[in-house]
Amino acid sequence: MRWLAYSIASKALTDHVPDGHRETLETVTNGYGLSVPAGREWRRDMNLINLQGLLFLVNACTKPSAAPFKQWAVEVIATIQRDGSYTLEEAEVQPTDPGAPIAYAMPEQVAEAIVRLEERNLQADEQLAVAQHESLALQRTMVDTQREMVEMQRATLTAQQTIAQAMERIANRLDVLGLDPPAPAAGISTHPTTESVLADWRQRLSVTSDVWALAVVIVPVLADFPGRQRGRGAGLRAQPLVR
Predict the structure, then answer these.
(1) What dihedral angle (degrees, nearest 10) is formed by the CA atoms of 109, 115, 119, 122?
(2) Residue 42 to residue 182: CA distance in whole angstroms
(3) In which domain, by residue range, is 60 found?
């Protein structure tokens, strides 16, 4: 079927060959009381067509590659009409096994067309194999990329959890400061400054380095609030960073 550029043999037979000109191998062998020959090349559902079926297939094909087959069909019909029969020439090389059937040679133009189509099919198979290999490599790359993204998301989640815990500890300590603020010294402004808040925290709190690094960032904002509001009104209670 590939010689006639039909990609799906069963569909080509259904579309172009009438039922009376095609049968399965099992039906034909059963009709003569025979069994299906053994071997991988023989299948019970293999489709067989007669000469008329072959002509139907050849004439229905519109591909330029079918031209040699159409020319051969014309020659077969013309020869049968003129001589009453058509016979292929015997091949130059014959089987050596005793009782082997005679081998016949295909017409030259048909044989050349078959060779060209087989070469084209081999090239198509090679291109398909290359495309499949490239597709597999791309899929592996995508899997590796997705794995890296998952690791990055895990690292981001860990960092966000650390920040949330640090903010929670800062908020707890600010609550303690707000409940018992120190009395302002005489002659000193009661309005806190960044420096005074940091100094007060250094003196009264014991925190880890990660909490202290975050505290340095938020103290300038806290300094604008009254002492009691620093711990409660500033909204510092840690909120979940990841949903």
Answers:
(1) 140
(2) 100
(3) 1-88
Residue 23 lies in a domain: yes
pLDDT digits (tens, 9 = 90+) for 127-155: 888 999 999 999 999 999 999 999 999 99
Residue 158 falls within a domain, yes or no?
no
| 114 membership: H or E segment, kind and range | helix 108-179
Query: pTM value?
Result: 0.35
E strands within the chain?
22-24, 47-49
- Token readout for 150 is 């998952």
DSSP state for residue 234 in the 8-state scheme: T
8 A C-beta contact, residue 192 and residue 182: no
CA distance 13 to 53: 9
- Per the structure, the count of domains in the chain is 1
Return the amino acid letter for 128.
L
* C-alpha closest to that of 27 among 19, 15, 35, 38: 35
Residue 33 lies in a domain: yes
Q: What pLDDT, in 10s, does the model give residues 202-232?
A: 777 666 676 677 777 777 766 665 544 444 4
Whether residue 18 is contained in a domain is answered as: yes
Q: Are 167 and 238 a contacting pair, CB within 8 Å?
A: yes
Structure tokens, 153: 């998301």
